[in-house]
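Hello,

Our lab assistant flagged a job as stuck in the queue for most of the afternoon. It eventually completed. Since we weren't sure the result was trustworthy after the delay, we are filing this so someone can double-check. Below is the sequence as submitted and the structure that was eventually returned. Let us know if re-running is recommended.
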Amino acid sequence: MECKYMSAAEAVKLVKNGDHVFVQGSSSIPEALVAALADRGDELRGVILYNAFALARRVSPLCNPRYKDSFLIDSFFVSNAVRGWVGEGYATTTPRFLGEIPQLFRDGTIRLDVAFINCSLPNEDGYVSFGVSADLTPSAVECAKIIIAQINPLMPFSYGDALIHVSRLDAMVEVHDPLAEAPSTPPNENEEKIGRFIAEHIPDGATLQIGVGGIPNAILHALHDHKNLGLHTEAMTDGVLPLIKNGVINNRCKKIEPGKSVASLAIGSRDLYDFMDYNKDMVFRDVAWVNDPFIIAQNPKVVSVNSCLEIDLTGQICADSIGTRIYSGVGGQHDFVYGSSRSEGGQSFLAMLSTTSKGQNKIKPVLTPGAGVVTTRFQTNWVVTEYGAVNLRGKNLLERARLLISIAAPQFREELDREAYNRLGYAYLRWK
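-- returned structure --
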């Protein structure tokens, strides 16, 4: 089909009953196309939609009981756009490391008929950019039979794998659609403590993978006196901008893409998106490459920092569910924990506040029934709360329990000590 401009309503007519549709994520959900598809809900049946890590400005219009037989959302990472819908049992999730999902498309395990993407304006050579969302998009457009693109002047033009020529697009829809934003918020006192605990273990010349949220922002803020840091991360955020602008992150010591800041996606403020626009010092690549542990490991002193929801006294990490309720997804946590363990001088940190917003303990004798293990106890390295940082590498179960209890909220330590004895037996009393 010849590439052409049309309305969103016309473009989504290319979707047929039973089609499998990829919906781009990050901060660039193609909302005009999703809304137009929802408007066809009464006439379509059995359409399956795949999405991954994303930040939405609103709940997806596809999450409507009226359309429960029209659309099935299958999410690789449950976002705020569909979390309630998954929780109510109208949608589902496919467990998979984010870096392995492109292979599911490429080997045909998951069929893709249509891809909905959100792109920049074309450059002088006729290429548009996926901008803030390379991650799964390169593999999706490679495998989909039909590609429908929003052409959006608010999408930055980024380099790397985030490019496609307009001749490959089957339909183009002009929009002026602001990207979802997640500006950096000042960390609270406890997040600042965690940030300092981690920053003091990060050496000059390290290659960073740091995620999204208050704790990552606190870590980045604590790195201003460091030197020659590199960036090879799944998600780029506002927190890296001061470090890049001040030359703290210069990527001088990296072996993979030296001199370039590497990411798979970006979630931040308009300042970040504007800084990315036509910036050749930033490279956005297919998540299958960015999250490949054997690529990650080639950089020196890789420091991986990820969050978790709870941990048990043996070091098992849950990061994707609250009991049986799926809350998010695995993302790249496992990939970077493993990759950092193979990097010369590498370290991984799992960080969390010691209690929930309701004051419940997050360091537990055993994980909540139904909780998923994202990082196994065989891989856990540093665990950090506002009460300290402990290194579980090479530690037996007795040592682990004592170390983890030492960084639990004080009001829970006595109870945890009793539970550790009940679980580990007499040897726990001997090991002081």
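-- support follow-up --
The delay was a queue issue, not a problem with the job. The result is valid. Residues 182 and 268 are 4 Å apart (CA to CA). DSSP finds 15 helices and 23 strands in the chain.
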